[in-house]
Structures are given as C-alpha cells and as structure tokens.
Amino acid sequence: MRLIKLKEVLHMTGLSRATVYRFMAAGGFPMKVELGGNSVAWVESEVEDWINEKIFKRDDEK
User: Fold this and answer.
1) How far, in Å, are 31, 34, 43, 51, 59 from residue 40 at the CA level?
2) Which of 13, 29, 41, 55 is deepest in the core (most CB within 10 A)?
3) pLDDT score, position 61
4) What pTM was computed for the model?
5) Residue 3, burial from CB neighbour count under 10 angstroms (0-12, 13-18, 19+)
6) Do the beta carbons of residue 47 and residue 9 sit within 8 Å?
7) What does the pLDDT read at residue 58?
8) Of 26, 31, 52, nearest in space to 42 by CA
9) Among candidates 62, 34, 56, 47, which has minimal Cα distance to 1?
C-alpha cells in the first residue's frame, strides 16, 4: 500500500485541488488520510480505483 500527496493526486486525475475536496465532500472521491499535523495523503490504490471506475463508466456508455 502506498500513500500519495495531493500533488500526485492532482497529476493522476487532472483535477484541481478545489474539485478534489468538493468531490470528497460529496462522497464521490476517496477520502484523505490524516497523517498528523497538517499533513494528509490518499491511498494510491483507491485513487486508481476511482480513475478506473470513470473509465468503465465511459466504456459502458458506448
């Protein structure tokens, strides 16, 4: 298991910081993991699963 920081999440998804947090608040994006202090990260496999779900939905619409 690997934890990734916001910069990598943004790079992987192409989303903005505000969009990631908005999607999280709506329950549509993996939740962050509090690491302590002001440090947070995301579970890489959960972000990858979210991306794959978007791809599968796109392919199902064809």
Assistant:
1) 10, 5, 10, 20, 32
2) 29
3) 78
4) 0.91
5) middle
6) yes
7) 92
8) 31
9) 47
